[in-house]
Fold these 2 entries.
Entry 1:
Amino acid sequence: MNLVSLIDSHPAEAGAIMSSGETTTYGALRQQAAAISAGLVAAGVKPGDRVALLLASNWYFVAGHLGALGAGAVVVPLNPQSPTAELQRQLDVVQPTVVVVGPSAAKAFDEVDRSAAGIEVVLTPEGVALADGSRPFEDLLVTPARPGWIDRADTDVAVLMFTSGTAGSPRAAMLTHG
């Protein structure tokens, strides 16, 4: 089972998400997630690797989240409005292989020590440039999709979500595929 398989049962023509005034159908979203999944695997992502998303609530976040799950990765959504010090602490904890950085996080992320956090690949949506360079997120969409999602056990971690830290420092809570 892979948590991303939840989108498989929806009719292809049904609307899945609306972002920037455009609707993406479940059929298109499945194709996009499959291409992103294949692109992440081609970039070296293995089951259990972490993929951090520093993105606003938009199409990039949804497609990136589903594509990373499909690749068997653990998705780590982070607040794109966080200051550099907070991002550094969280990235150091989760050690992501890949980070997808949107425009609202670009300035703070540019000051992150990528090597300390174990980051190998940085992806950005079109129009977002980072001082240390990055690869275009859209390049993943042209990767030939592979059939199916990488199978994960129900007990495998799917998402690491940082808590608010009201009783101390924020911790990464775990959501499994089951």
Entry 2:
Amino acid sequence: MGIVSGIVVYLCIWWVVIFTTLPLWVQRDEGGPEVTAHGAPKDPMLKKKFILTTIISAVIWVGVFICIQSNLIDFRAIAAKMSETDYN
């Protein structure tokens, strides 16, 4: 895996993980001002969630990197088989 493809894979993993961590530890702000939306969180803890997302994404990325480098998942062979298949 090259540097650019590694960064792209990491960013894709990071975006998926951030959307799974955003709902964690959410408490609704019941007594907030009138301009606040009804479902708005009291304290979204975004810094904590970004740090957690970065750590989880790094661990997942290392696993993906190891799978690709050790040829457990051979994307070139998969692409070659797909190009051989006649879809007509």
